[in-house]
Structure formats: structure tokens, C-alpha cells
Automatic annotation (TrEMBL):
InterPro entries linked to this entry: AAA+_ATPase (IPR003593), ABC_transporter-like_ATP-bd (IPR003439), ABC_Transporter_VariousFunc (IPR051782), P-loop_NTPase (IPR027417)
Keyword Ribonucleoprotein: no
Name by which UniProt lists this protein: ABC-2 type transport system ATP-binding protein
Ranges for domain ABC transporter: 4-229
Pfam families: ABC_tran (PF00005)
Alphabetized GO MF terms: ATP binding; ATP hydrolysis activity
SUPFAM superfamilies found in the cross-reference section: P-loop containing nucleoside triphosphate hydrolases
Species, as recorded: Saccharothrix saharensis
Top-level taxonomy: Bacteria, Bacillati, Actinomycetota, Actinomycetes, Pseudonocardiales
Keywords, ordered alphabetically: ATP-binding, Nucleotide-binding, Transport
Length: 293
């Protein structure tokens, strides 16, 4: 089952395309990491999925419907923006009452149990909470809505390492307990490695690579050997990045087959290597033979 489907999706702001030609099929039941440099289109994609923006081109379907098309569709999607928005003058308890009024599928027991478990004072105004506590309150509101899809836009960007880890642990517990699908944007690769099993890399407003993390890691290899022109590589070895010195070439390739050339030392890549390679080479192809000294 696909929780988010995009075909030729684009969003334009005046003359600038924030997202263009987006083709995506994000499976349900996964935690999908959405990663890319600033301005790549991550927030735009999430806001399109939440129904906060309309496409300039193409189509997007979320949980089987058009985002923002009506109350039933809105109830299927939860969204926590980057600044973990809460109302500073409202207490924690008032946030929960507001959530109950606005969301027909609201799980009041889940919300109150979670607030008690993480130790938030129901009578305390949100403006007096720490950044981590505000993030936990926003996550509680998103989960208690009982959405099919939870969209998180850099939810831990402003948190210290301990608060970030606690937030991610709670997120994983919520996913396991309630079966919600998650799409989470983040710049922090360590966080993606900890919680995500599916990946989307956006660069220059376009999708550069997408797939299950295990499969992506299994099909990318780092080749190191005597300097050579990458155009001589077999056709099934798609070059993602290449670096050359006077004597040596280091090439990251994507391939489903074995590396048979004995001249290459073959190494595995980790998630950070893979992401940075695609981010550094937005127009993935066969790089020219330049020299890095």
C-alpha cells in the first residue's frame, strides 16, 4: 500500500520552482527520512502532502485522497512543523482540549497517558516549556489525532542531543504501538539511521534517489583503484560520484551485480556516504575526469 504518491509534482513560487518533476511512491507502514540541503524542497513537499499548499503542476495523493480536500482527508494526516508550533498562552491541558475539539478521531486517553508518562505539567503554559517539552507536546497532538500519516518537518532541529534522542525514542514507540506511517525531514543523518527504514533524497527541487534503506546500502559500492576514466565502467554500474588523484580513482556506483574487475578494491558505504554523494552531485551521471589534489 502506498501512503503518498506523486506524479510530475511541482510547486512554483513566482519564478522559482521549489519542487519540480517529483515522482514518488512512499509505502505505508514505514518511517521515511526526507533529506537534502536547504532549499531542496523538503518543506514544500511536506506542506503539499498536508494540504497546506496546492501543486503548480502534477498530482499528489495521500492516504488515497487529495490533500486538504475535506474533513475526512484532513483527519488522515498529522503535521508537525519545524518550529513545533504550540500556543504559548495555552496550557498543556488546554492544548489537549483544543485537539479533542478539532479532530474527530482524537484519542483522549492516549493524549493524557502520554502527557503523564513524559512528565508534562497539564497546568503549565506552553510558553514556559523547554524546547524539548514543546516538541513532545506537538508530537503528542500529532499522534493523538490518530492519523494514518504523520508528517514531521525537522522536528528535532532545535533540541539538544538528549532531548533529541528521547523524542526519537518516543516517536518509534508510537509508530510501533499505533502503526502510523511517518515522513520526517532532517539534516541529521544519525537520527535518520536510528529511526528510518525508507529514504528520499531531494536536491535542487528534484528527487535524486528513493528506496528502502537496506536495499540502497546493498546496491551502492565504493570502488578504489588505479586512476581510470569512469566511462570505461560496465553499463550496469551507475556512477554516483567520482574523485581522482594523479594515480587513483575513487568511485561510488549503484549496481545490482557483482564487481568483477580485480583492479578495484570494493567497499561498502554507510548512509551518510550515500546521502552526501547524491547531495554533492545533483546531476547524477558520469562525471568528467577531473583531478582532486
Amino acid at each position: 500500500m502506498t501512503v503518498l504518491k506523486a506524479r510530475g509534482l511541482g510547486r512554483k513560487y513566482q519564478r522559482h520552482w521549489a519542487l519540480t518533476g517529483c515522482e514518488l511512491d512512499i509505502p505505508a507502514g514505514h518511517v521515511t527520512g526526507l533529506v537534502g540541503p536547504n532549499g531542496a524542497g523538503k518543506s514544500t513537499l511536506l506542506r503539499l502532502a498536508a494540504g497546506m499548499l496546492e501543486p503548480s503542476s502534477g498530482t499528489i495523493e495521500v492516504c488515497g485522497g487529495v490533500p486538504g480536500s475535506g474533513p475526512a482527508q484532513l483527519a488522515k494526516v498529522g503535521f508537525v512543523a519545524q518550529n513545533t508550533p504550540v500556543y504559548t498562552n495555552l496550557t498543556v491541558a488546554e492544548h489537549l482540549r483544543l485537539g479533542a475539539r478539532l479532530n474527530p478521531g482524537w484519542d483522549d486517553k492516549l493524549a493524557h497517558d502520554r502527557i503523564a508518562r513524559i512528565g508534562l505539567d497539564p497546568g503549565l503554559a506552553a510558553g514556559r516549556l523547554s524546547g524539548g517539552q514543546r516538541a513532545q507536546l506537538a508530537l503528542t497532538l500529532g499522534i493523538a489525532k490518530r492519523p494514518e500519516l504523520l508528517l514531521l518537518d525537522e522536528p528535532v532541529a532545535s533540541l539538544d542531543p538528549l532531548a533529541r534522542r528521547e523524542f526519537l525514542q518516543d516517536l518509534m514507540e508510537a509508530v510501533a504501538e499505533h502503526g502510523v506511517s511517518v515522513v520526517m525531514s532532517s539534516h541529521l543523518v544519525a537520527d535518520l539511521e536510528r529511526v528510518c527504514d525508507h529514504l528520499v533524497v531531494l536536491v535542487d527541487a528534484r528527487v535524486r534517489v528513493t528506496g528502502e534503506v537496506e536495499e540502497l546500502l546493498a546496491t551502492h559500492r565504493r570502488l578504489t583503484g588505479p586512476r581510470r576514466d569512469v566511462d570505461t565502467l560496465p553499463a550496469d554500474q551507475r556512477v554516483v560520484s567520482a574523485r581522482h588523484t594523479d594515480r587513483q580513482s575513487t568511485v561510488l556506483v549503484r549496481t545490482d551485480g557483482p564487481i568483477l574487475d580485480p583492479a578495484w578494491d570494493v567497499g561498502e558505504v554507510d548512509l551518510e556516504d550515500l546521502i552526501l554523494a547524491y547531495m554533492a552531485n545533483p546531476h547524477v551521471g558520469r562525471p568528467s575526469l577531473g583531478v582532486v589534489r
